[in-house]
Write a structure and sequence with these properties.
Distance between the termini: 95 Å
CATH topology: Rossmann fold
Order of helices and strands: HEHEEHEHHEHEH
Oligomer: single chain
Number of strands: 6
Shape: globular
Structural class: alpha/beta
Number of domains: 1
CATH class: Alpha Beta
Number of helices: 7
Radius of gyration: 28 Å
Strand content: 15-25%
Helix content: 25-40%
Strand order of the largest sheet: 2-1-3-4-6-5
CATH architecture: 3-Layer(aba) Sandwich
CATH superfamily: Vaccinia Virus protein VP39
């Protein structure tokens, strides 16, 4: 297994228009995001990257939403992804749409996001699955310099392992889009549904929802104590006194 950190600088997309079938990919992610947004509560939400900025979250209970990117016109904050200009535990939810694939150091990016995430906050991660038709297409030489194949794709299980190291609990994970073809989409959707769930690990896209869990470093001692074992009481008899009294 190759290390996640890349030595060369990886360019990342700032809009869905830069990706092949980007509009269809964003619509599929938007459908799943609409189901989860009403479940989020808090004060602040962070959308990291231009792709995340273009996802709408109007039905979310979190009103203040920060869009962070350098080129997307929907941004309201421009900053380095690896050095977020926010205090620790500032956001109740973070959306990372296809950010780890185009990060030189995805571990560092996740740690920085974890720093600004509150306890029990929600993290949404989307990406391309390398064990799919989209991932296999990256082996073609003429596609290596084009989006989305120019990035580094990671399997959903590997993303889950990284989240587990940071004490995140994966509450939902879905791998879908077995046939990522926009043309004749109705036919491909029907064919994917008829195949069943056994082919879902080969889906081109994954949608992961994780929740940050914080455990105390020092175990809390119970207030109750174990009762001592009952022992027979020792009684001393003075036989000499008994004879004198009699």
């Amino acid at each position: 297994m190759k290390p996640a950190r890349s030595k060369k600088k990886v360019d990342h997309p700032h809009s869905w228009e830069e990706l092949a079938n980007g509009q269809w990919v964003s619509e599929s992610i938007q459908t799943r995001l609409d189901e989860w947004c009403p479940k989020f509560f808090g004060y602040h939400m962070l959308k990291l990257g231009g792709l995340s900025c273009e996802l709408t979250s109007c039905n979310c209970n979190i009103q203040h939403q920060v869009n962070l990117d350098s080129k997307n016109p929907l941004h309201n904050v421009i900053a380095d992804r690896y050095e977020l200009p926010f205090l620790e535990k500032s956001f109740d939810a973070v959306v990372m749409s296809h950010q780890l694939e185009y990060a030189e150091d995805p571990h560092r990016l996740l740690r920085e996001v974890d720093r600004v995430m509150i306890d029990d906050g929600y993290l949404i991660i989307t990406g391309f699955n390398p064990m799919s038709f989209t991932g296999l297409a990256s082996l073609m030489p003429w596609r290596k310099n084009n989006f989305p194949w120019s990035g580094r794709m990671f399997t959903p299980n590997r993303i889950k392992d990284w989240l587990g190291v940071l004490n995140y609990q994966v509450v939902y994970a879905d791998t879908y889009a077995l046939f990522p073809m926009k043309r004749y989409r109705t036919m491909w959707t029907w064919l994917e549904s008829s195949i069943g769930d056994w082919a879902s690990p080969m889906g081109s896209l994954y949608f992961i929802v994780a929740r940050k869990r914080t455990y105390p470093l020092k175990p809390i001692k119970p207030h109750w104590r174990l009762k001592k074992k009952l022992t027979p009481a020792s009684v001393s008899y003075r036989t000499a006194d008994k004879k004198q009294s009699s």
